[in-house]
Structures are given as C-alpha cells and as structure tokens.
C-alpha cells in the first residue's frame, strides 16, 4: 500500500490556531516541513527544500473556514510549482531482476563457456538421380569444443563418420572448413582442426573425472536440432558405467551417467562441473524414441585426455590387440561354457603367430570349435567385454599369458601384443 506522509505546516500568529478562529492577523508566516515525502513502490522519491511563505492578508477580515482552507491549499501548490527545480532531487528507482546465487552462477557458467562450444556440420557427397550432378548435402550435425589455441576441435567420432567434408561454426557464427586430425573408433572420440585466428579460439578449461561424485551438479552445452547454443542441467546419476562404441562395439569403461537432457545434436558437446571445467563428452542417450529420457552418457575427460594427446601428436591411437575375431557372447552361452570363442586368428596376427586355433569345419561339414579364451594374465574372461577391458590395461609389445580351453583340456599360451592396424 502506498504511503504518503502528510505536509506539516506551522502557523506563527498572535492568535490561536487557524482552525479555531476565522479571524487572523494581517500577516501569517507558514513554514513547510523540511522534506515532503511521497512514497509509492518503486516509483520516485521527491525532496524539496524548506521554503518560507509569507501571505499578506487584509486586517481583521472574517473568512469562512472552507475558503481559508482553499486559499492555504492554493498557496502551497503555487509554492511547489515555483520552487527552484535545480534544488529538487528526483530520481526513478527501477526494480532489477532478482536472481538467486545459484541462478547467477549458472548464467555466468553458460556465458563464460559458450565461446568454447562449436557447431559441426557433416557433409556427404550425393549424386542427383535425374541430373547426375554431384552435390554436397548435410547428412548430420553435432557439437564440439575448442581444445587449444592451435585450432584443434574435439567431438565424437560418430558425428563425423562418413563425411566427405566438415564445417565448423564458432560462437560468433563464423564458419571454417575442418580437417580430420585423427579419431578413435573404439572410444568414439575424434579431433578436427580449423584454420581460425587464435583470438577467436577459446579453449575450454580441462577438469578431472576421477573424483566425481554421484549427485553433484553437471551442465551440458550443445546445439540440439541445429539450434543455437543451449544449456541443460542435471546431476550425475551414476559412475563407472559401461557402454559400447557405436562404431566398433568395443566397450567404453568408466562412463558418466547423467540426467541432464542430451538430445540429438548435443553429441560431442562438453559436460561441465559447477566450476565450468570439462569432465566429459556427451556421447549417447538411452531412449527407445530417440529423444532425451533422462539417461545420458558422457565419456570421462580422463579417458579423453590421453586419446586426444595421442591423436594430436601421432594422428592415431596406439592400442594393443590380440588379432582375433570372436563369436557373439550368446553363441558361447549356448555351448554351456564361459569365455570367448575364437572364430578366426589370422596367421599374420599376434594370436595366429602364437598358435591360437580358429573355428573351422572338417571335410564332412561338421563344426570344429576353436580355442575358448578363459583368462588373460590370470584375469578371468567370461565375455568379449572382459577381454577388451583387460587389453585396455596392456601396452603394445607386452607379453600376456592367454589361457584357452582347447577340446577338453586347458593350455596357457604366451602372446606378444601388437598395435592396431591403421584405419582409413
């Protein structure tokens, strides 16, 4: 409710109160109170000096009370109008938008990290069926982020897969052609490079994912559905999850699960902690409909860091392999055994050189099972994921002891791991 403080007036006259007698002396001096306060919510505060008004009147006139009040009111109004405007301090107080401290922190985080997030367009060569003209048409899009001042951009491999040409749009809407520096299909990570001025490139702060906790806040920035930068928030729902690479099916360990909305187009964008540091790359969602269902997955930054370093330096990731093809886990389960069934062990591969046997058929067409790997370096292997997980902890050139079930007996075979062949 608006509050208005009344004007206090003091009348100096030999007679008593003005309102008790209709007869006043020839001169009446009216002193206004020092300050006139007019308060209304969020409007203005008007301060006026304390003027002294002297009203000459005719001697000993009998004036009706209503008329006297009217004259006094008119005199006061006139005084306010003719007062010196320069001495009046009038200002308008606007009510600012009030945000909570956590809201301010979120707004600041988005504003500070948006310049590091880019939009990636995947172009593919298509031939028109009628004119036979060869055209480049967008076949997909995704997000990425600036890794360093040299123009390296990090994203998911599935964002750039099958592209004949790539375009990267920075936060200021400038677009540049991008070249593929390297990629790791097994971990779904790719590195691009753009020839952009260094002053337009703002690397994202790199954090640590080893000390993350379930329940802490996370923030995902990306370009879903080709829109401008958007921010979604949530918490870490789970840690040390495992998903399969969309390209090779190889498991990706220690994945971060979050309920922050990750929609198509968010892939390759950063997942940030409350300090604005990178803790993961948004890579996948679990949803039958293809839209965000509150279950998203991000590759941890500790995994990404080592991969990006190798891709920037060597253009590829050196990862050890056994050099085998193995049967689906369901097929081995039907046999009533636990392990990895070797379907093929090429003679020029590490397993073939060591003497592992492949699955084959005899002259009558009967299936002869190959070796079934049950452990590596005394670590139990029950399925393909276990085998990959053990190999990820090994190095190229390392000798491992592979225990296999061959027929009705077990054998231990030493195998020297070799690097994965180059991929085009």
How do the strands and helices of this protein lay out in sequence?
Layout: E1 3-4, E2 9-12, E3 27-32, E4 38-39, E5 44-47, E6 52-56, H1 65-82, E7 89-92, H2 101-113, E8 117-127, E9 134-146, E10 152-155, H3 157-160, E11 165-169, E12 175-184, E13 189-194, E14 217-222, E15 230-244, E16 251-258, E17 270-272, E18 278-285, E19 296-300, H4 301-314, E20 320-321, E21 325-326, H5 329-334, E22 340-344, H6 350-354, E23 360-361, E24 367-368, E25 372-376, E26 379-380, H7 384-391, E27 399-406, E28 409-416, E29 418-419
Antiparallel strand pairs: 1-4, 2-3, 3-6, 5-7, 8-9, 8-11, 9-10, 10-13, 11-12, 12-13, 14-15, 14-17, 15-16, 16-19, 17-18, 18-19, 20-29, 21-22, 22-25, 23-24, 25-26, 25-27, 27-28
Sheet with the most strands: spatial strand order: 8-9-10-13-12-11
Question: Would you tell me the structural class of the helices and strands?
Answer: alpha+beta
Number of strands: 29
- Kindly report how far apart the N and C termini lie: 75 Å
Gyration radius, in Å: 40 Å
Helices, by number, come to 7
Main CATH class of the domain at 318-417: Mainly Beta
| Silhouette | elongated
Largest sheet: 6 strands, antiparallel, barrel
- Residue share in helix: 10-25%
Mean pLDDT over the residues: 77
- What is the CATH homologous superfamily assignment of the domain at 318-417? PDZ domain
Q: What CATH architecture label of the domain at 318-417 applies?
A: Roll
The CATH topology of the domain at 318-417 corresponds to: Pdz3 Domain
Strand share of the residues? 35-45%
Unreliable spans: 1-48, 50-58, 84-95
Domain PDZ: 311-383
Protein name: PDZ domain-containing protein
Keywords: Chloroplast, Hydrolase, Plastid, Protease, Serine protease, Transit peptide
Family: Belongs to the peptidase S1C family.
